[in-house]
Amino acid sequence: MKARIPSHIDADVEFGHLKATHHRYALILFWWLVAAIVVLIAMAIAPAREFIEQIDDWWLNLMIDAEVDGLIDWAEVLAFAGSPYATVPARLAVAIWLARRAAWDRLGVWIGAVFLSVTATSVLKALYGRDRPPAVLSEVTASGSSFPSGHTTAAMAAAIALVYVFASAGKPARHWFYVAATYGGLMALSRTYLRVHWLSDVTVGTVIGAVTAMAAVWIVERFTLEISGALEAVFGWAARKDR
Predict the structure, then answer these.
(1) CA distance linking residue 240 with residue 16, whole number of Å
(2) 243 domain residue, yes or no
(3) Tens digits of per-residue pLDDT, 22-49?
(4) Residue 140 included in any domain
(5) Phi, psi of 197 (to 5 degrees)
(6) Which pLDDT tens digit goes with each residue over 215-241?
(7) Which of 3, 42, 102, 240 is the 20 to 30 A CA-CA neighbour of 224?
(8) Residue 137, class by beta-carbon neighbours within 10 Å (0-12 exposed, 13-18 middle, 19+ buried)?
(9) Rounded distance, CA 77 to CA 39, Å?
(10) CA nearest 209: which of 118, 110, 89, 107?
(11) Following CA atoms 223, 108, 100, 86 in sequence, which dihedral angle do they give, to the nearest 10 degrees?
């Protein structure tokens, strides 16, 4: 028999134990978002962009000086973990697992986080069209625009979304947020360590990933009754029942 989990998210029940943690992180995230917006604006203004690029150059040289073969191997493992070869099957596996257990709202959070993070990354890459660090310095092959880092955005969005999707009511989840943040931070560091992204690429990517994941949670929590009603009307699924 398949394990059952509640089919719908109730912000006061399912995530009641996350309220304090959620609000604390939301406040931190707000200031991160402000910083990201400042960077996005600065990247479009020549004098400010030149200052950011000086910091990026300094960090790139630091990563070159800190090169260690074992750490390069570790970074390449993370590079594969963030590639479509790994992320697409993983995303599908989580979606199928949730669908088989009729966890529709949680599935909505997961799909929403993936969709919003991918969309935000694609739009910003197209808008900025930034060049990557020189290919001769890179440890792996990468293509496309550099800003922001797709690997970092996707890793942070997926990690935070998973905390919400698999959180168990009544059990503290603060440590899982730390795990999510650590994974996103390691992915960001690995991208600069492999010299396929600038520091500003991964910094903005980290924030965008977190924002898109939490936006997906907010949308599902906000419109859960409407979503449930639509599902029931179209497919006959029971609205707001624990399976």
Answers:
(1) 17
(2) no
(3) 556 667 677 777 878 888 888 888 888 8
(4) yes
(5) -145, 155
(6) 888 787 777 656 555 655 665 544 444
(7) 3
(8) middle
(9) 29
(10) 118
(11) -170
Give a yes or no: residue 3 inside a domain. Answer: no
Residues 6+ apart with CB under 8 A from 179: 159, 163
Q: Which two tokens stand for residue 93?
A: 């596996």
**Residue 184 is encoded by which pair of tokens?**
């996103």
Count how many domains the chain has. Answer: 1
Q: What is the pLDDT of residue 13?
A: 44
pLDDT for residue 229: 58
Q: What is the rounded average pLDDT of the residues 111-124?
A: 94
Contact 196, 133 (CB under 8 A): yes
Helices (H) and strands (E) in the chain, counts: 9, 0
Cβ atoms 165, 18 nearer than 8 A: no
For 223, residues 6+ apart whose C-beta sits below 8 A from its C-beta are none
Hey, CA dihedral for 206, 83, 157, 173, is it positive or negative?
negative
The region that residue 5 occupies, defined by phi over 0 for left and psi between -120 and 50 for alpha, beta otherwise, is beta
Residue 53 burial (CB count, 10 A): 14
Domain that holds residue 78: 16-235
pLDDT of residue 228: 57
Q: Locate tokens 């390449």: which residue? A: 76
Between helix 150-166 and helix 69-81 the angle, nearest 10°, is: 60
Burial class of residue 198 (count of CB atoms within 10 Å of its CB; 0-12, 13-18, 19+): buried
Residue 98 lies in a domain: yes
| Tokens coding 118 | 């991918």
Task: For residue 149, give every residue at least 6 positions away whose Cβ sits within 8 Å of its Cβ, in sequence order, or none.
Answer: 188, 191, 197, 201, 202, 204, 205
